Amino acid sequence: EAGVAQSPRYKIIEKRQSVAFWCNPISGHATLYWYQQILGQGPKLLIQFQNNGVVDDSQLPKDRFSAERLKGVDSTLKIQPAKLEDSAVYLCASSLARGGSSYEQYFGPGTRLTVT
Amino acid sequence: GDSVTQMEGPVTLSEEAFLTINCTYTATGYPSLFWYVQYPGEGLQLLLKATKADDKGSNKGFEATYRKETTSFHLEKGSVQVSDSAVYFCALTPGSGYSTLTFGKGTMLLVSP
Which residue, of A101, A104, B4, B10, has the fewest CB within 10 Å? Predict the structure, then answer.
């Protein structure tokens, strides 16, 4: 089966510009996650969707970050305006369902963002 | 809050050497524990997991045992290969049915022929 798809793979922007990332989860996966992975650190959850509803966005910097998952399939994550500290890899993951550790999360290859 | 601490890398080994990557955690309740691996240029992949105390997860020659008394989940492999070179992440989810992963900082493993 096809894995989690993300685009673009790389993006370079200047600070104060805006940027958007796209994720297509594995078909049939109800839960979708966006993580931020800063160099030298482990991934940190930004937002979690169950179908098209937000389950957890407690660590999303809502003054500049936004995300949506229309129709409960694809998702976009947007940063506006970007700051230097937003330079990171943005990972998308999906799982069959939300509850329980038995639902493995499958990760996409990530989008590497560089803010100059 | 929950947290995961891993040994710092890089860990540099020769092929066929024994591997241990230490991982300890802090969590309330009964978390589930995971090891993920990230090969160069690829996304994270689940390597193994354990969902309750004394469980042993294993996959591809790697294994880790959930030790509640020492709050540890150390990753081991008896004989590493060059192809095992990657970054390894220890992670946990709360034991309350939620699936949010909390990751450690990752440990890079470099295996030379």
Answer: B10
